[in-house]
Design a protein that fits this description.
This protein is α/β, with parallel strands linked by helices. The protein has two domains: about 5-65 and about 160-340, QueA-like, CATH 3.40.1780.10; about 65-145, QueA-like (Thrombin, subunit H). Helix content is about 20%, strand content about 25%. A hairpin with a 4-residue loop joins strand 8 and strand 9 (about 115-120). Helix 6 crosses helix 7 (about 315-325). The longest helix is centred in the C-terminal third of the chain and has 13 residues, at about 235-245. The chain is globular and about 65 Å long.
Length: about 350
């Protein structure tokens, strides 16, 4: 299967640069994956698509202000560091720009020395392992010095960094937001629960590997980076009980979907626990767990549009995207949503 099979034309002006003032006011495309039928709505009306006995699965990871600007000691040259994955002993896997200047032994100073880091190794894809040195609490220093790691297609500065967090974000660790969840408000979630829909939490710390372009022509040769997930026993029970009763398990976002599919056994039973997943879902994949999916509109030729195509069919998805472009839907992280049922 060729990466070009997942291409589509997208005018640049349809890439959403700013979040809407009302999270739930974005548009919502409804896609029937059996018939390919497309309907149009508003996100707050998602409640009308949910039924008593359904289980909505949300990813409660929290984006950390992972983008740091510092300078190399000795030269004073500017350098940008993006935290990707926490390792042991204050070592992080990072993306560094310019990378060529960050050889092992390089010392980088942030915030006038409030935080310092030493490059200790170069790993896969040229990422750097950096060991950090500081006094106090790392998260507090990061909150003071770091910026939100917005995707490169968003060129506007973010006025309120909480708008790149879901309202239910809880566990620090993501380098990117689980953006399908950005449409929910606390009020909407309360209304959904009052309707008799169970809300289950999972945690998957989103890495940039999810969003990296597929650089091989044959998609089966693409390698996904691993991401850490946690499913608590009580949350697994909610999901399994829903399945047992015949209710639908509805994943909010591709991150929740990948977590569920990674933790499900062949019989469609979720196992609680934690681990790393590098699951790559593309057409031909047989879903074990999810029955419906809430998601945003994704980049051409991305692993995310491949996942959506695996769930709803490539032809149906590309036709839905064509209609979305025609109707001037807003795309990507701050854009509109799709409910695939």
């Amino acid at each position: 299967m060729n990466v070009k099979d997942f291409d589509f034309e997208l005018p640049k002006e349809l890439i959403a640069q700013d979040p809407l003032e009302d999270r739930s006011a974005s548009r919502l495309m409804l896609l029937d994956r059996k018939t390919g039928e497309v309907k149009h709505s508003i996100f707050k009306n998602i409640i009308d698509e949910l039924k008593e006995g359904d289980c909505l699965v949300i990813n409660d990871t929290k984006v950390i202000p992972a983008r740091l600007f510092g300078e190399r000691e000795g030269t004073g040259a500017g350098i940008e560091v993006l935290l990707l994955k926490r390792m042991a002993n204050d070592v992080w896997e990072t993306l560094v720009k310019p990378g060529k200047k960050a050889k092992p032994g390089t010392v980088i100073s942030f915030g006038g020395g409030l935080l310092k880091g030493t490059v200790v190794d170069v790993v896969e894809d040229g990422n750097r392992l950096i060991q950090f040195f500081y006094e106090g609490i790392f998260e507090e220093i990061l909150d003071k010095l770091g910026q939100m790691p917005l995707p490169p297609y968003i060129t506007h500065p973010l006025k309120d960094k909480n708008r790149y967090q879901t309202v239910y974000a809880k566990h620090d660790g993501s380098a990117a937001a689980p953006t399908a969840g950005l449409h929910f408000t606390k009020e909407l979630l309360a209304q959904i629960e009052a309707k008799g829909v169970t809300i289950a939490h999972v945690t998957l710390h989103v890495g940039l590997g999810t969003f990296r372009p597929v650089k091989v022509e044959e998609i089966t040769e693409h390698h996904m980076h691993s991401e850490f997930y946690i499913i608590e026993e009580e949350e697994a029970r909610k999901i399994n009980d829903t399945k047992q009763r015949g209710g639908r398990v509805i994943a909010v976002g591709t991150t929740s979907c990948r977590t569920l599919e990674s933790a499900a056994d062949a019989k469609g039973h979720i196992k609680s626990g934690s681990g790393w997943t590098d699951i790559f879902i593309y057409p031909g994949y047989e879903f074990k767990m999810i029955d419906a999916l809430i998601t945003n509109f994704h980049l051409p030729q991305s692993t995310l549009i491949m996942l959506v195509s695996a769930f709803a069919g490539r032809e149906s998805v590309l036709e839905a995207y064509r209609q979305a472009v025609e109707a001037e839907y807003r795309f990507f992280s701050f854009g509109d949503a799709m409910f695939i049922r």
